[in-house]
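Hello forum,

I keep getting stuck at the same step: I have a sequence, I want structure tokens, and every attempt I make locally crashes halfway through. Rather than fight my setup again tonight, could one of you with a working pipeline run this one for me? It's a single chain of 263 residues.
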Amino acid sequence: MNIIFPLLILIFFSPVFANSSDTAEFIELGNFTQQSIDQIIGSSNKQPLIENKIELISERFLNVPYLGNTLIGSNNKQEILTINLGGMDCFTYIDYVEAIRGSSDFGSFKNQIKTVRYKDGIIDYRARNHFFSDWPISNSSQVKDVTGDIGKGSSKTVKKFLNLKSDGSNYLTGIPVVERNITFIPTENLSSEVINEINTGDYIGIYSNLDGLDVSHTGIIIKKNGKAYLRHASSKKSNRKVVDEDLIIYLKNKPGIVVYRPI
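Reply #2:
Ran it on my machine without issues. Output:
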């Protein structure tokens, strides 16, 4: 199971750090350049629909290697503004896609990362959106939870105490336990009618049955040739990169999904 620890457990690189006027930065563009990111932004901004925009942006990251634990910071270490396009996990992948969606150039992309990744844009470990369900709360002007609407009576809502393990310990040191209701659509209730209500460009989380976690994985819905695919940074040994996988096949033996829609 791909538990979302990329935003939970952190390691340090030994790269060259840049210092801006207000914060330290780590930027690794991999096979991209600032100019190529500007081109992606320019092309996406010509798209008339949000779904087309997200499809185009997310496609440009296909085959980028999977790399976990890329964010820098912890309860007792300084948080560093990190952009690593040379490798990404399931959560940083959607971070980058959503940040590029709201950008006009590379400079604004860096600012959008702050907005998407952190509450009130404050670069601090305690302000980071550690859980997928933080997104529609911290970024309410950008995404909304449409799980219940799409489920049309087939969804379920469960009370979770995020960050609290079943043994009473925490996943994250220094982060408070948050009581939150998580609505999800059980996999067995994903009829063709329900899937038809999910759009290309919707962000989805794979619901987790584990205490203290909302989802175990995240990705983006892409519909093509009459089928729904999960576009995601896959940690699976046979992938280890950003790929498209048949949604129904991927969800086999998974508990269900949470759906957040870009607005």
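The chain has two domains: 18-131, 133-262. If your local run keeps crashing, start a new thread with the error log.
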